[in-house]
Amino acid sequence: MSSNQLTDSGQLRHFLTIEGLKQPLLTEIMDRAEQFSGITNRQVKKVPLLRGKTIFNLFFENSTRTRTTFELAAKRLSADVINLNINTSATSKGESLLDTLHNLEAMHSDMFVVRHSQSGAAEFIAQHVAPHVSVINAGDGCHAHPTQAMLDMFTIRRHKQHFPDLRVAIVGDILHSRVARSQIQALSTLGVGEIRVIGPKTILPADTQTLGVHVYHDMAAGLEGVDVVIMLRLQHERMQGALLPSAREYYDCFGLTDEKLKLAKPDAIVMHPGPINRGVEIASTVADGPQSVILEQVTHGIAIRMAVMSMTLGAQSEQQEVQA
Amino acid sequence: MTIPSTQADVQALLNNMAAEIRLCLGDRQPLLIGIHTGGVWVAEQLAILLGTDFFDASLGTLNIAYYRDDFTRIGMHPQVSPSDLPFAVDDRHLLLVDDVLHSGRTIRAALNEIFDYGRPASVTLAVLVERNGRELPIQADIIGQSINLTKDQQIKLSNDDGLKLELKTMGATK
Predict the structure, then answer these.
(1) Residue A44 to chain B, least CA–CA distance (Å)
(2) Average pLDDT of chain A?
(3) Which of A74, A98, A149, B136 lies 20 to 30 angstroms, CA to CA, from B158?
(4) Could you tell me if residue B75 is inside a domain?
């Protein structure tokens, strides 16, 4: 749990993890995203809310979807955005992470959006930034990916409304997935009726029971009667660790095909954080089928990131006014 | 000065405003836009008084929260319904409605937002109450009533079973 992502008055100052956040705050993020989503239908697809703010996208790890939607969200709010691909810049010349940060602060930045392969990187940065800077975690190691979880909750709410009535299944590599971890925290905070995780024993964490989820090693049993199926990407690098025999065998057991999807409720939706591996964890006919909301998730990512950016920078403004 | 406060007072102001709007915009197929929250209430009443055929589309609403000039000072406002303009504003005559015109900052924000939807032919501003204290060169075209108030006085529109105006003195006990 992060100790410093809220202001004294309980507002979001950084957005590092879902863990520890209360249900009304998660609902507020979704409500604000709902309000921002209408901006896309205008002739001028932006509002001047964050005009004059400078946001740095610090991606220490590759990403296309997440970085682009963060960039678009910032631009729709009229902020200035700088994208830094850190692999190819200062750190490769031997500069330390904190030195890089302090240099960016010296450029009067207001926000860092951080993606890093080390768990806890965003939290570490939040602890060391100047007080006027907000940090948003865009994925850290196997730890958390809170904006992805919130855009997923937003997508579920658009289709299903009432969380307590729902059964949600998350399928795949839960052990290495920051997305799954954040999703499970968000789903349980929002009071989802039943959360199931489905996967082979080797890629389910040993402590799944303590997460408050039901564990299934059989896809057919796990999908029975669910309202939402969330597929996770099978990360090829896991195969090398001998956790899984082969992509083919994984697909046979845990790939989502039309036949397996029939076991879920007829109006179940299929989600995936992307990038999808067709024929590895999901069949093309399902990914492109009528129950798939995978591309909607991408669109919703923009509104959710607009909500989180405006809320964190708004809380910063308020805090500075109180201290002034 | 007497402050129009009862439901009947407010209704009389609305009747006068509706008559004036008919004169100004009667031949222009105007579109109606209310500013959240009080301006929407006033616009709804004007729409009833002017009849269903007067305006060319249903009421548009503006939430100027993202266009305010005090975000860097006070952060996000509490949530209100998002803007919803169910029509294209390009080359149209707009009637923009608010409850109270005071500093002019809300109208500045509303005009900026409208121009992000397109380029209207004209914007006419109608307000139920116009008071002193302008901070920007913005004036209303159609005014229910002009009132002079002191700096610590505030006039507020409420809507419980009909529109009423209430005069409040800041710092005073109720």
Answers:
(1) 5
(2) 91
(3) B136
(4) no
pLDDT tens for each residue of A186-209: 999 999 999 999 998 888 877 766
CATH code: domain of residue B135 = 3.40.50.2020
Q: What is the pLDDT of residue B174?
A: 44
What global pTM score does this model have? 0.88
Which two structure tokens, joined as six digits, stand for A48?
A: 């001047």
Q: How far is CA A311 from CA A6, A65, B67, in A?
A: 11, 22, 15
The average pLDDT across A295-304 equals 96
For residue B172, what pLDDT is reported?
A: 61
What does the pLDDT look like over B48-94, one tens digit per residue?
999 989 999 999 999 998 898 888 787 887 777 888 999 999 999 99
Q: Does B49 reside within a domain?
A: yes
Whole domain around residue B63: which residue ranges? 7-70+88-149
Peptide bond into A275 cis (omega under 30): yes
Dihedral angle computed from the Cα positions of residues A83, A88, A90 and A96, in that order, rounded to the nearest 10 degrees: 100
User: How far is the alpha carbon of A18 from chain B, nearest alpha carbon, in Å?
Assistant: 21
B119 within a domain of the structure (yes/no)? yes
CB contact under 8 A, A317 and B82: no
Chain A partners of B113 at a C-beta cutoff of 8 Å?
A: 47
CA distance to partner chain A, nearest, from residue B67 (Å): 6
Domains of chain A, each with CATH number or no CATH: 23-144+299-323 (3.40.50.1370), 146-293 (3.40.50.1370)
- Across the range A203-217, mean pLDDT stands at 81
Looking at the 3D structure of chain B, how many domains does it have? Answer: 1
- Per the domain annotation, does B92 fall within a domain? yes
Nearest to B62 by CA among B48, B45, B76, B42: B42
Residues in A closer than 8 angstroms to B76, CB to CB, are 32, 310-311, 314-315
Amino acid at residue number A276: I
Residue A126's SS3 state is helix
| Cα B35 from Cα B64, distance rounded (Å) | 8
Interface ipTM > 0.85: no
With helix as H, strand as E and coil as C, how does B58-121 read? CCEEECHHHHCCCHHHHCCCCCCCCCECCCCCCCCEEEEEEEEECCCHHHHHHHHHHHHHCCCC
pLDDT profile of chain B (174 residues), mean per 10? 85 97 94 96 96 92 89 78 90 97 96 93 98 97 96 93 91 57
The answer to whether the CB atoms of A42 and B66 lie below 8 A apart is no
